[in-house]
């Protein structure tokens, strides 16, 4: 009981701090994070019992990283009603009472399936998003286009930087359609909607967000959680991913090396299953921890090719849990089932996540 009260008190302190710092990029919370839960792909039209399992983990922070609702509309009244359905979920209300929530979006809560810069209601949708997640009026996130943002938690030696990317608002369109036949895709084990686009004038983040991101990566942090709604490392399935714009994917690898940004771990959603991917071609081993399936899962998609995968895939309801052991200098990445069982686990020595 004492530990439970202590955790709730710490979460309340952090929540108050977030309010007064505007989810700030200039200031941050002094709370040392040990447990960070995250998830994606939550249809407001379906039951969401997994929130009780998430709350039972007593996370210090929850990250909602895309398809937080399935909005898919240009009518903002419809978008608001769908957000209201999420807010009415008893389990989600329990989460809000337990710990702070930070969020970014993916295509469905942006408003258009696989949408990018062409979505004509993007400004209005951004306002609805920021309002729903109670982002203060004086937040930097409200003073620019898009909804990207960052927050630093903890003190020297135990600093966690959370970077929330916006992979929708500025992304060039259209993507390059994959023209393989169904038989060819099946033979290559592809989902296969898209192929890499080698036009280097295209962008994932837009120039302003890239400039902002470089400044964030120059800040001091021991662990950096970069939330990208779509997968960063895995790029062979033919689904939406950073590999559809390979020059932008490489640009982020290069930027991490250029800024000597230690401690980066990517988290992603979108694909309706969970997997761990690892790319060793960057400045140090870069992990992309995908958790997708608060309500929506796909066993078929989980079987698609991913030569970067470490361990199994898990295609039942799931969320991600990141646990930092500051004393042992380690981080643990776990996929959790609806019953709280660990189905995928990757333990990493933080010294591995250092620019040589």
UniProtKB/TrEMBL annotation:
It comes from the Bacteria. Residues 49-274 form the PhoD-like phosphatase metallophosphatase domain. Signal peptide: none annotated. InterPro entries: Metallo-depent_PP-like (IPR029052), PhoD-like_MPP (IPR018946), PhoD-like_sf (IPR038607). It holds the Pfam family PhoD. This is Putative alkaline phosphatase D (APaseD). It comes from Lentisphaera araneosa HTCC2155.
């Amino acid at each position: 009981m004492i530990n439970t009260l202590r955790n709730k008190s710490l979460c309340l302190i952090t929540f108050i701090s977030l309010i007064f710092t505007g989810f700030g990029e200039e200031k941050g919370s002094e709370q040392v994070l040990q447990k960070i839960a995250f998830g994606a792909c939550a249809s407001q039209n379906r039951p969401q019992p997994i929130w009780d399992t998430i709350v039972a983990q007593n996370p210090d922070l929850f990250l909602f990283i895309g398809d937080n609702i399935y909005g898919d509309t240009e009518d903002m009244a419809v978008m608001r009603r769908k957000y209201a359905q999420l807010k009415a979920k008893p389990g989600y209300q329990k989460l809000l009472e337990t710990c702070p929530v930070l969020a970014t979006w993916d295509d469905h809560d942006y408003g258009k399936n696989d949408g990018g810069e062409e979505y004509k209601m993007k400004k209005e949708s951004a306002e609805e998003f920021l309002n729903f997640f109670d982002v203060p009026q004086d937040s930097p996130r409200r003073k620019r286009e898009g909804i990207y943002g960052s927050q630093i938690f903890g003190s020297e030696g135990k600093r966690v930087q959370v970077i929330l990317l916006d992979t929708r608002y500025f992304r060039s369109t259209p993507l390059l359609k994959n023209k393989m036949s169904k038989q060819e895709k099946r033979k290559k084990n592809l989902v296969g909607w898209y192929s890499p686009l080698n036009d280097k004038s295209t962008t994932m983040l837009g120039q302003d967000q890239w400039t902002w991101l470089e400044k964030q990566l120059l800040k001091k942090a021991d662990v950096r959680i970069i939330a990208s709604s779509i997968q960063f490392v895995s790029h062979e399935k033919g689904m939406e991913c950073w590999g559809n714009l390979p020059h932008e994917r490489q640009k982020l690898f290069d930027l991490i090396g250029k800024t000597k940004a230690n401690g980066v771990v990517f988290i992603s959603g979108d694909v309706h299953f969970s997997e761990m991917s690892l790319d060793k071609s960057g400045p140090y081993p870069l992990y992309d921890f995908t958790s997708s399936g608060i309500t929506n899962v796909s066993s078929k998609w989980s079987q698609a090719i991913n030569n970067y995968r470490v361990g199994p895939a898990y295609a039942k309801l799931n969320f991600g849990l990141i646990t930092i052991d500051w004393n042992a200098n380690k981080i643990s990445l776990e996929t959790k089932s609806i019953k709280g069982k660990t189905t995928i686990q990757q333990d990493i020595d933080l010294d591995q996540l250092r620019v040589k």
